[in-house]
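Obj: model holo form, ligand = zinc ion.
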Amino acid sequence: MTRTSVASIRGALVMDAGGGFAPVDRVNVSTGRFSRTSTGGVDLDGSGLWLIPGVYDCHTHLSWNDFHRADRDRRSPAERRALTARALGDTVRGGVVGARDAGGADRALQADVEAGSLLGPRLQISVDMLGPETAGNEDRVRAAVESALDRGAQWIKLIATESIGSPAGAELGSHFSDREFRIAVDLAAARGARVLVHAWGGRAVSAAIDAGVASIEHGIFLTPAQAAQAAAAQLTFVPTLSIYHFVRGLILDGTVPGVPLVRIDEVIIAHRLAVATAHEHGLAIALGSDFATTLQHGTNLTEIGALMRAGLSSAEALTAATRTGAALLGIRDGGVIADDYLADAVLLSSDPTDPATFESPGSVAAVMMGGTLVPLEPGTSPHRTPQQQ
Ligand SMILES: [Zn+2]
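Output (holo structure tokens):
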């Protein structure tokens, strides 16, 4: 894999730690980090472009290529591997430099990315998803958590509530007991891992917060009291707005049968309200796509636009997508363009304060990770190639 080192980016409008933009003559890169001085490499002409930190997608499924599990299972291992490699490449080329896989990706895949034999974002993995078949028995929960940790999980993923396929109201019950949440959190913590919880609302959200999980995923029916409780506990909320618009399309074209349109429409509206509620209560919000198909991987930045359309300012949405995501993943030197931070950044050809920018894939002109340019797919050309001097 050919990698071009970047020495500097010149003349771009550069995002600051608060999500605002100002012209900067020269952003220097040295040994993989932003720096006061630069060492060997190309100087990129960023004039007329916007430079944002690399994006963190805190909820994705990189090893899933089809929406339905049955379709995934029908593919041969070689085919699945090829599609997963493509998903990893598309994701990083789309501007995502850090990804938390919320179930599916395993240690072997992560090792390939770390070794550079697969192009992909900085990857953290959950391996398994522990749901109703695990819940309801403390020994079973213990064994399942230990097993995932043994196989390299940095995150324990609990599926604590029902989802779109259930009748309205069913998602407010919790698969896991309060004690089971605590068992998962304690076992994970003992081995340096943390817990993320798929919870649409109700008891599961409150119990997960009480148990000390790191993040609540989806949180469609998050209440103001839960948002306040989560903010006080310094949790992070990972809404996944875009995916439900995608699911709405699947319901319309018959791919997801048996779900009334009114159900998904209620979910879409409630989810936007949940984001507004979280925002109002000062709950940290990070970006999550929940993407799980070949067509979706690589379009992760659409979620930035979705966060803006749900009421976050552009500065807030961009900060959620970068600094807050890096913080959730424990990457303290990520998500900000400032000296000594990881030289991860995305050059955009259109204005990032406009949500439409993120709904058009051509907006990503270049992606830099660790101070080198992410190679573009052969045969594709970005909307505008930054000039190399
Ligand atoms: Zn998910």
